[in-house]
Write a structure and sequence with these properties.
The protein is elongated and about 70 Å long. The chain has helices spanning 5-20, 23-34, 40-44, 51-63, 83-113, and strands spanning 67-72, 75-80. It contains 5 helices and 2 strands; from the N terminus they run ααααββα. β1 (67-72) and β2 form a beta hairpin. A two-stranded antiparallel sheet has the order 1-2. By secondary structure, it is mostly helical.
Length: 117
């Protein structure tokens, strides 16, 4: 029996990247960032697409855990979940930028330590 954590990790991360790859889904996330807890009707008002298309996009966002829902009576409210985006930032952006930031800090330190500065 093998323990391959990358299969689960890649599958989860793949869903997030796939969800973020579509402009309409990013617009939905932007709308939820502006006002969290919107209904389907409210979200449809910001996009020029059918209610059915918005529903399909929301389903993909929910499967990627970028949107979570809560029921208030008969209303289904959609909320932005920023955690998967933060995980992407930590895994794919920050670690690559750290080397550059360290180099800039080192350069600054050397320039400030030079005589005549």
């Amino acid at each position: 029996m093998t323990c391959n954590h990358t299969v689960t990790y890649n599958s989860t991360m793949d869903n997030v990247f796939k969800a973020l790859a579509d402009t309409s889904r990013r617009l939905l996330l932007d709308q939820l960032h502006l006002k969290n807890g919107q209904t389907l009707n409210e979200l449809c008002g910001h996009l020029s697409m059918s209610r059915q298309a918005v529903t399909k996009h929301l389903t993909i966002l929910e499967e990627a855990d970028l949107v979570v829902v809560s029921w208030r009576g008969r209303e289904k409210l959609h909320y932005l979940n920023p955690v998967p985006i933060d995980e992407i930032s930590r895994r794919w952006i920050r670690k690559y930028e750290q080397h550059r930031l360290d180099a800039i800090h080192e350069l600054r330190r050397k320039l400030e330590d030079e005589p005549g500065s």
